[in-house]
Amino acid sequence: MIIRGRALPLATYRRRRREAARLAQRHLFGPVPLLFLGCDEHRLRRERQDPWFDYYTGCHEPEAALLILPSGESTLFLDPGDPKRVVWDGKRLRPGQGRAVFGVDRSLPRDRLDDAVKAAARAAGGRIAMCTRRSEPGFQAQAMAQWKAKLAPEILIGNAESALIRQRMIKDADEVAWHREAIRRTRDGSLAVWPRIPRLTSEAEVAAALEAEYRCHDQAPLAFPSIVGSAVNGATLHYPFNDQPLVAAAPLLIDSGATAGGYCADVTRTIPQDGRFGRGLFREVYSLVLASNQLVRAAAKPGVTIAQLNEVAWKPITDAGYTRHHGVSHHIGLDVHDPSDRDAPLAPGMIISNEPGIYLPKENFGVRIEDDLLITADGCEELTAAIPKDIAAVEAAMRPR
């Protein structure tokens, strides 16, 4: 039997499900069942499991679903697939195996989900709850829209995200360990590719080389599509194309990350394509962004808010006459932009980004330096410290080997 997913101990998923039921009862509209849908086979092949579903099950089987009753009792629904398709698609876990493999109270065939959801909703006064993200909605949001159309008007579906996000904002020791592994893979891939960049000719070559390094570990997916912007393309914050030639001796912005156990690394470095920073405007701007990055790292600690980190990060940049284009931080987890209460003070166990930047399209470059910070009891740990960013360290890392 092959088990796909389940990066954490079964006790962790059980605890999360019980806590979700309690949080829903406390913060929503009384006792309400929670429904989470897993991705279909085609989406799993292209991307990865939906993070909300993954968070509560660890299950990477296609077409799966999870129903958590107000009592905390959980049922996993598994699609056994078409036996005639096994030779094409491989075996799936049988519904009868789900209870032991994923630690749920019951496991049933997927075709019993509709009846189970309706029965649970009727017992709760005609209500259930799902999760849809207010920003960057993904698969779970699509699933919620489909179920609203399916169940209306007899059953109302509420959004449980605001009640549940606090769970995902605090990482336990196992989650932090997976983050460290994702960052290690990102570091190793970066240090393997950087010395080759002066000999490469296109953004696509750089992206492909990095992604090959990241994905060589158990074929783990990328945290997000890599951004590789040469020269002026580095001044586009979420440059989506990676399809232009490298501009000789120009700055090269690389925003990328590997995953491990489903958890994401999110790292940006801006490097000189030829391996030397020189003495011009690029070096000056880079030094300013690096100083801002270091100020945020020093300020990040329990009790501080992301709004306060923004004040720390952007003051030296705006004082120097440059424009602020984005926030300096977001939470990181199973989503590279993990759902969060951005007004909540930082607390131990949170993992956030630290990413000041200056973007100068008229000067044909942009600079962003992004690290991942783990909030600790008395400050923070820079998880990405082993990925070079000081000028001398970057130049050394780019030297041919």
In terms of per-residue confidence, which ranges show pLDDT below 50 for 5 or more consecutive residues?
A: none
CATH architecture of the largest domain: Alpha-Beta Complex
CATH-wise, what's the superfamily of the largest domain? Creatinase/methionine aminopeptidase superfamily
> Pairing-aware structural class of the strands and helices?
alpha+beta
Kindly provide the name of the CATH class of the largest domain: Alpha Beta
Topology, number of strands: 16
CATH domain fold name of the largest domain: Creatine Amidinohydrolase
User: Major sheet, described briefly?
Assistant: 4 strands, mixed
Element string (H = helix, E = strand): HEHHEEHHEHEHEHHHEEEEEHHEEEEEH
Provide a count of the helices.
13
User: How would you state the average pLDDT, rounded?
Assistant: 95
Label this structure with key terms.
401 residues; alpha+beta; Creatine Amidinohydrolase, Chain A, domain 1; Creatine Amidinohydrolase; 2 domains; four-stranded mixed sheet; 13 helices
Please outline the helices and strands.
Blueprint: H1 10-27, E1 34-37, H2 41-46, H3 51-57, E2 65-68, E3 74-78, H4 86-89, H5 98-102, E4 106-109, H6 113-123, E5 127-130, H7 139-151, E6 156-159, H8 161-169, H9 173-193, H10 203-215, E7 227-230, E8 251-256, E9 259-260, E10 263-264, E11 267-272, H11 281-299, H12 306-319, E12 351-354, E13 357-360, E14 365-368, E15 371-375, E16 380-382, H13 391-397
Parallel strand pairs: 3-4, 5-6
Antiparallel strand pairs: 1-2, 2-3, 7-8, 8-11, 9-10, 12-15, 13-14, 15-16
Helix pairs in contact: 1-8, 9-10, 11-12
